[in-house]
Model the fold of this input.
Amino acid sequence: MGYVLEMEDFSAVIDALKKDYRIFAPVRKEGAGRFTDVDCVIYDEISDAFDIELTQKSDYSAKEWLTPLSETLLYFTEEDVKEADLPQKPVLIFGRSCDLHSIQRTDQIYLKNGDAKDPFYQRRRDLIKTVLIGCGQSFDNCFCVSMDTNQCDDYVFSVDLIDGNVYSDVKDAAFDAYFQLDKTVETKSVTPQFVTENDVKVDIPDVIPYQIITDDLWDEYTTRCIGCGRCNFVCPTCTCYTMQDVFYRDNERVGERRRVAASCMVDGYTNVAGGGQYRRTNGERMRFKVLHKISDFKKRFGYQMCVGCGRCDDVCPEYISFSNIIGKVSNAAEQEVKS
Ligand code: SF4
Ligand code: SF4
Done:
């Protein structure tokens, strides 16, 4: 069923949902951006519908909750290990179509990548239901249409803010009750907004020749990229992490084990015993990241890893564009095939 609600009425829906769910959504943090007086849109638990940022693409993605930058997995003492608690209240996560597609990618890595499932990811994933934020327009640097992630039907209900009213398509009938608090509310046919065209387009070749690995197109990034790793931390599909054991000062045989996000673009990521390092230059690191996103993942799982959200372009302090790099790879691949 579909509903068209004034914002105040939608606020009452959120208040009712809060009794049964924790709700995580993009929120605007004033002045928290990387320049003075620039805002940042990040994921946070909301207590009010008016806090949800529905008009702008978030700078960070929903993985802020699903795979936190730092998560304590367990506590240890001399004798025992105890798994860290996770609140069991179900969670609603608001995300745009590309964001909901990105959860499919993180599921693939943590739950469908071999026989074992990651239990710490699984227990978070089991709590989640997703809410679609419709896209009435394409944002800067988005190329979701090229990546086939511009449409999505994996949501319990959708939200489109149009002329001050909230349009919702409720797919999971269990959620109709939250929208029918006012028994006189009318149902309507509502279709979420999806973009059908982006200014930025990419065309990823079906086959990327092996020679691309040694192509000099990567050299530019050895000097341009500063290896800050921001592109990885905003990317909804980057899942790499490292482990840290933290020993408490009072008793150094007691402590906690944390999973902490890692970045393939940061120096030290490929360090191995004996002083070895597989990818020493930022150009080599860029090659690894790009080919993982647009080739290697697909070879293993049959679909592209990158969802075309453009956040890596938005955040890069060196104005390096992922979609431009895809264009360079496509051109180089075409030249290779011709030669
Ligand atoms: S590589 Fe860039 S465009 Fe692709 S999913 Fe990650 S952040 Fe988005
Ligand atoms: S954000 Fe830009 S400069 Fe930083 S590691 Fe990524 S590509 Fe390099």
About this structure: The two ends are 56 Å apart (CA to CA). Residues 2-69+86-179 form one domain.
